[in-house]
Structures are given as C-alpha cells and as structure tokens.
From TrEMBL:
Gene3D superfamilies per the UniProt record, alphabetical: FAD/NAD(P)-binding domain
Transmembrane segments: none
Protein name: FAD-dependent oxidoreductase
Organism encoding this protein: Dietzia lutea
Pfam families, sorted: NAD_binding_8 (PF13450)
Length: 472
C-alpha cells in the first residue's frame, strides 16, 4: 500500500488526505496546532455560548464541486444553512442594496440598473456549474466548457471599477464594489472583477451557506471521514524539515510557498525555490469579534437579514480605501466585511446576544489597533450599534499570522490576487501543485483555485499525486 503524509490540516490538507485515502493510500496528517481545521476553526471568542468563526465564515463555492460530489459531507453529518439575504451593502441615509438568491428579486430592487444586472448575472447563474468546472481548476488547461468560461472571462478580466460603472446608481455600483473587494486588490487593477463576479454569481446559484455549528463542522466532518477510511491525524506536530517525514510515497504540503521552501530546503529545485520565495502575499485583515445584544441595528433594513454585510460606503470610497491598503497606508474609513452567521444559524447566539465577526482590510503586517475604527464605520450605517456591544475580542494582523502561519503578515487569502498570481500560482507551471521534487506537492490556498473552504486545491493536488503514483 502506498503511503502519504499531509503537512497541515486546513480544508485543503484534509481534502487531499481524503482523496488519497479513498484511492487506497495509507494517509497520515500532521498538524502543528492542537486542533485541525486551519481557516475553518470556530470558538467562543467573546462570551460563553456565542460561537464565532475564526476566519472562514461563509462558503459560497463549497457546493457542487468536484470535491463535494466525490465526498458527500452532508451525508456524514455536515449541515448547511442559508441566510434570507446572501449579502448586502448599506449606504448613508438608510439606503443600500441586497443580493438575494434570486437574480430577478435582486435586480428588482436596483431600479434603473435592474435590466443591466439581469443581463450580466442571469446568464452567468444559469451556466455557473459549467463555469466552476473550469474556474476551480488551474487556468492553464483545455476548458471543458469554453463558451461558458469565455462569457465569465469577459467580465472577470475587467477592473472592478470599470465593471461597476456599467451601472448608474450608487446602490448597484457599491453592491459590486463590496463583493469585488473580497479580492484585497485595487479596484482599478486588471482582473479585479474576477472574484466579485464569481462570488456574486455563486450567491444566486447556491447562496452563501454557513456550516451549522460553525465552520469547525467542516473540518470535523472531513476528519471523521478520513479516520473512517483508515487515515490518521496527529496534532501538535510541527514539521520544519522534509527529513522528519521519513520516506513516504507522497508528501502534500498544506502550507505557504515560503514554508514549503523551508521544509524542502536542500532538495527543492532552485528555480522552484526562487518562485516560492518570490510568491507575493497581499494585504491583511484585522478581526474584531463582537457580542451584540439583538444583533446590529442597520438602518438599511435588508442588512439585518443578511448573512454578510459589506461596509465601506460608495464605490469611490471603497476604491480609495483599497488603494491605500495596498500602498501600505491605513485608511481612515477601511472596507469591512461583517459576518452575521447567526442570521442563518440561530444556534450560535445565546439569550438574544449575537456573535458578529468583522474583518477590516489593513496593510500587510499592520501593527495598529482598528477596533474603534471598525466600530465607528458600523455605527455610521447602524446608529446605536456601539451601545449594544457587550464584549469584543480582537485579533491583529500579527496575531492572525501567529494563529495560522499560512496567513503570512495577516493575509487571510494566502496570496496576493494580482493578475499574475490569479493565473499562475504559486509559480508558472503546467502542474502548479508539483514542487519539482518527485512525489511532493503543495496543496494550500496558495495554489489554484485559491482561497475558500471548498477543498478544491487539495482535491486537485491529490489527483495530481495519484497520477504520479499510477505512472511510477
């Protein structure tokens, strides 16, 4: 029986482990932390009984993928829940816009921009299963559905600020700016629309589901499935050198490229080592977990029913803030992603107090405290919010990086989403998962298709490893 060691137990490491174990490989997972999960961990960060996700909270690309079709997590205990409103974007004066799972309902609230919104997201939503078959693979491949991918690419290649100006109202423009800002990229840069178009379409096709009981449920379900297939998981085990691993047939590294270069020092081809050392990380996040009496009192009423709220004001404000962050400057009014997971999963709240997780975009490695800035930004669109807060728990960019070494400098998306790295990550190669060392692969979110608790990077990498085993 061939053997494999997986270093790291984030969703991609566990997906790789499951994929190998299902093919008869003897799998051992080594995790440095005392618990599995990576970015899919949850805990009581503020008050007893309030469950907060420690990073990944909503999972719009986790449904109907190659990995999810091979491994039915729901049949093994995982439950998904959807908010009534998938995401929203409040503006001053109680105005705003919201995305429902229905394209038509979303468009109906956009007034003069209704028809234009439908023309973009209607066809993309209808073809999204075909689009994701190609989108969730390395981009250097012969597409299975070239026409559907070409339509998606027409919009994805544009700067987000350019695509947003296709609409005329502040509401529609801000709505797209907010979802595009998930890329942590200046909205004027090429391909900065890609993630916004993908996440926006996913909201209409599948919604933005949360895992009932916290994102930790994703990791724990995958771990149970792995153990049931004979796999082993060892926590509290840090790997710094490939020689510590013995001589397995396969090694999978769910790590940052720089960490992979360190582990493989002395055996990694020089050209690959240079590429891994040059891999660019993006801006950081500053997290504040809030315990909020009755939830956030947004003036924009649909935002009270929204799972995710994008806080940043108008297109112009978000554009300016994201540009500053990439330049290493802390904005006075940063873009903030607010997760209201208890809207979809009420069991996370307790006695009318709700867990709320806010992530402000800040410069890489920023050492300041954004707590009051985040509170002021939310208060701007939800007067009275400050008075409802019972408790806060903060994590700086540095603390986020210490908690998860893959998040270098606090970069929670594991790599800058610039045009080069959107296409070629972590290096230019026909097989981006291969390290150039026979049988050794990198499978973290630094590889295609990037961040998200969908497990597709691990699944893709494991399939590459299985092809190697078959060809030996």
């Amino acid at each position: 029986m061939p053997t494999a060691i997986i270093v790291g137990s984030g969703p991609n490491g566990l997906a790789a482990a499951l994929t190998l174990a299902a093919d008869g490989v003897d799998v051992t997972v080594l995790e440095a932390s005392d618990a599995v999960g990576g970015g899919t961990r949850s805990g009581e960060m503020t008050l007893p009984g309030l469950l907060h996700d420690q990073c990944s909270g909503f999972h719009p690309l986790a449904l109907d993928t190659g990995f999810s079709r091979q491994f039915d997590l729901e049949s093994n205990g995982l439950r998904w829940a959807l908010p009534e409103v998938q995401y929203s974007h409040p503006l001053d004066g109680g105005r705003g816009a919201a995305v429902w799972q229905s394209v038509d309902r979303t468009a109906a609230d956009l007034g003069a921009d209704a028809a234009s919104y439908q023309r973009i997201f209607g066809p993309l939503t209808a073809r999204f299963p075909q689009i994701t078959e190609d989108f969730l693979q390395p981009l250097l491949h012969f597409p299975e559905h070239p026409l559907a991918l070409a339509r998606f690419g027409t919009y994805a290649a544009l700067p987000a600020g350019v695509l947003a100006r296709r609409w005329r109202t502040d509401e529609a423009r801000a709505l797209f700016a907010g979802v595009a800002a998930h890329a942590f990229r200046p909205l004027g840069s090429l391909m900065s629309s890609a993630i916004g178009v993908a996440l926006g379409t996913a909201a209409h096709r599948y919604g933005w589901p949360v895992a009932v009981g916290g994102s930790v449920s994703i990791a724990s379900t995958m771990a149970r499935m792995l153990v049931s297939r004979g796999g082993r998981i060892e926590t509290g085990t840090t790997v710094r050198d490939h020689r510590e691993l013995g001589d397995p047939d396969i090694v999978m590294l769910d790590t940052s490229p720089s960490a992979a270069a360190g582990i493989l020092a002395g055996v990694l081809p020089r050209r690959v080592e240079r590429a891994y050392r040059r891999f660019r990380h993006g801006p950081a996040a500053f997290q504040v977990a809030f315990a909020v009496e009755g939830g956030i009192p947004w003036s924009h009423e649909p935002s009270r029913r929204s799972g995710t709220v994008h806080v940043g004001g108008t297109l112009a404000e978000i554009t300016a803030a994201e540009r500053q962050v990439v330049r290493g400057e802390m904005p006075e009014r940063p873009f903030i992603l607010v997760g209201q997971q208890s809207v979809a999963d009420p069991g996370r709240a307790s006695n009318g107090v709700h867990p709320v997780d806010a992530y402000a975009h800040v410069p890489a490695g920023w050492t300041g405290d954004a707590t009051q800035t985040i509170i002021s930004q939310i208060e701007r669109f939800a007067p009275g919010f400050r008075d409802r807060v019972h408790h806060v728990h903060t994590r700086s960019a540095r603390q986020i990086a210490e908690h998860n070494p893959n998040y270098v400098g606090g970069d929670i998306v594991t790599g800058a989403n610039n045009p080069r790295q959107l296409v070629f990550r972590p290096r230019v190669a026909l097989d981006p998962y291969s390290t150039g060392v026979p049988g050794v692969y990198i499978c973290s979110a630094a590889t295609p298709p990037g961040a998200g608790a969908h497990g597709m990077a691990g699944w893709n990498a494991a399939r590459s490893a299985l092809a190697y085993l078959a060809g030996r």
